[in-house]
Amino acid sequence: MRVTELCGKLTVLITTCFLGITKVQAGLLDNTFDIGSGADGLIEQALQAPDGKVLVCGNFTTFNGINRGYVARLNNDGSVDQSFFAHPGYWVRHVALQPDGKIVIGGYFANVEGEPRNLIARLNPDGSLDPSFNPGSGADIIIAGGVDGNMTPFVFWQEVQPDGRIIITGNFRQYNGQPAMGIARLNPDGSRDTTFQIGQGFDSWGRFIKILPNDQILVSGWFTSYDGHNANRLVRINSDGSQDTGFNPFYGDRTAIYTVAVAPDGKYITAGDSLNLDDLFKRNIEKVNLDGSVDESWVGTSSDKTESLLMQPDGSVIAAGFFALLDGQSRQSLGRFNPDGTLDPNFVVNADNFIWHIAPAGSDKILISGGFTSIDGASRRSVARLNVPGGAIGPPPPPAPVMMDPRLSRGQFAVTVTTVQGRTYSLQAKAPNDSSWAILQTITASGESEVFVDTPTSPRLYRIQAK
After folding, report:
1. Torsion over CA: 123, 15, 199, 203 (sign)
2. What pLDDT score does 383 carry?
3. CB-based contact 258:266 (threshold 8 Å)
4. Closest by alpha carbon to 384, among 362, 363, 348, 357?
5. How far is 63 from 42, CA to CA, in rounded Å?
6. Which strands, in side-by-side order, build the sheet including 178-179?
7. Which helix (H) or strand (E) holds 140?
8. Are 235 and 247 in contact (CB under 8 A)?
9. Is 460 or 87 the better-scoring residue by pLDDT?
10. pLDDT in tens, 149-174
C-alpha cells in the first residue's frame, strides 16, 4: 500500500510477512463453523479477513438458501453476513484482500452491479462496486481453449503487492485493449502499469501468483514460454517484468503447475498434474531448488491433481486436490507431508470430493473449499473449517504497521511506527531501479511507537517490514 510520496523521490511502503502454520495433530472438523446447507455450487476459494469473517467465491448463486451470487461473506460462525452483498454478473474465481478492506475479484464475469467490469473489479468492504477502480475494457480474448472446450477468457488469480499494485494472470490476451498475454500489473486505480514490461507474455494460461519477499514474482500455469523465452509451467519474474533467467524448471509436455509454496529453506514445493509420457513430474508434486532443478531429497508423491498447498514454518506442507493417495497411502483430497516429503500419519481428514483451496484461519484453524459435500461424514457443502489442535498454526500475522508522519526534512528521512510487542520491524530501502531491498535498521518492538531515521545520499524508496 502506498502511504505517501515526498519530493517525487521518496515512497514509503508497508509490507507484512505471513507467519504460516506449524506442525499439528490431525485436523478435525470445526463444528462451530455451521454453514447450514452451504453453497449450491462450487466454491473455489475461502479467505479469512483480519476481522475473522470469511469471503467465499465460486460458481454458486445461493448460500444456505440466501441469495448470494458468486461471492459472499460469512460471519465467524458460518452464517451469511447480511451486511455484505456483491453483484458480480457471473462466476468469481479468486478474491484478494487489500489492507484497507477492499476486495479485488477476478473470474469470468463481464459486469458488476450492471457496470462493465470485464473479468476484474474491486469491491468496497460492504460488497458494493468500487468505482475508483476502473479497468476500462478489462481483460479479454482467450489465449487457448480449455481441455473441456471452454472458449471463454477469465482471470484466474490476482495478488496485491505491498505498494498497492495488483498482478493478474489467467486466460486473456489483452488488458484495456493493449497486448497482455496472460499477465498484467495494474495500478491501484485499475489502469495498466506500463512499467511492468512483459514483452510477449505467456503462450498459454497463467494460474497462480506468489509474490516473494524480494519483490520477485512466481507465476505458474500451462505455459511453456515467457516473452519468447523458455519458461516451462513456472517462471520467476523480476519486479520490472523481466524474466529471471537463473531459474529454469522443466516439467515437460502435458503437465501443469497449479500452485507453489515457499519452504523455510527458500526452495519451492510445486504441485499440479502430469500426463507426461516421459515420466516427467510423474509424482504431481516436487520440490525444486532456486535454479529450478529438482531437489531429489524431497520424496513426496500424489496420485492425482494437486490443487493447493499451505506451507508450515517447519517445512511441513498441507496438500489438497483430487487425489486418493499420498505417498501411496489413502488420503482423500487432503493430507500433510513432513519436511522431507514423507507422509504425516497423524493428519487424516476425508472429503467426499475434491478440495480446491486451503487457507489459514486464525491461530489454530484452516479453511478448505471445493466440490465436496461432506467432511469426515458430516455435511459440509463446498466449504469447511478444520481445527488444528495445540496452537498449531502459531500466532496470527502481525497487523500492517501503522505509519505516522513519514517525512523528508533537511536531507533526513524519519517515520514513526506503531508496533506490536515482540514483533520484529525493519526499515528497508532501495534505489528506484533496484530489484532488492537493503535492511537499514531492525528492532524487536516493545509495543510502543518507534522512530526510524535515515540520511540518504541519493533518492531512495523506503518501506517498513513486520515479522
Report:
1. negative
2. 98
3. no
4. 357
5. 11
6. 139-140, 174-175, 178-179
7. strand 139-140
8. yes
9. 87
10. 678 999 999 999 999 999 999 999 99
The C-alpha R_g of the chain, in whole angstroms, comes to 22
**At residue 129, what is the residue type?**
L
Instruction: Using the structure block, give the residue that is written with the C-alpha cell 531437489.
Output: 295
Q: Give φ, ψ of 374 to 5 degrees.
A: -150, 150
Q: What is the rounded distance in angstroms from the CA atom of residue 333 to the CA atom of residue 341?
A: 17
As a whole number of angstroms, the distance between CA 245 and CA 228 comes to: 12
307/465 Cα distance (integer angstroms): 30
Give long-range contacts, CB 8 A cutoff, 24+ apart: 286-293: 287/263, 287/341, 288/234, 288/249, 290/246, 290/247, 290/266, 291/246, 291/247, 291/248, 292/234, 292/247, 292/248, 292/249, 292/250, 293/249
> Cβ(321)–Cβ(333) under 8 Å?
yes
Grid cell locating 245: 533467467
pLDDT digits (tens, 9 = 90+) for 23-45: 333 348 999 999 999 999 999 99
Task: Kindly list the distances between the CA atom of residue 376 and the CA atoms of 154, 265, 348, 428, in Å, as whole numbers in the listed order.
Answer: 33, 34, 9, 47
Q: Quick check: 415 pLDDT over 60?
A: yes
Question: Is the separation of the CB atoms in 26 and 398 below 8 Å?
Answer: no
Could you tell me the three cell numbers for 343? 507422509
How is 87-120 classified by DSSP, letter by letter?
-BSS-EEEEEE-TTS-EEEEES-SEETTEE--SE
CA–CA distance, 190 with 132 (Å, rounded to integer): 8
Give bridge partners of residue 4 from the DSSP assignment.
12
The grid coordinates listed for 360 are: 489459514
CA 416 – CA 230 distance, rounded (Å): 45
221 in Cβ contact with 206 (< 8 Å): yes
Closest residue by Cα to residue 258 from 274, 273, 277 = 273
Matching residue, cell 523481466: 242
Strand partners, 158: 168
pLDDT confidence of 449, banded at 50, 70, 90?
Answer: confident
Amino acid at position 159, single letter: E
Q: What pLDDT, in 10s, does the model give residues 295-321?
A: 999 999 999 999 999 998 888 999 999
Distance CA 356, CA 46 (A): 10
Tell me: the pLDDT tens digits for 195-209? 999 999 999 999 999
Report d(CA 397, CA 146) in Å as an integer: 37
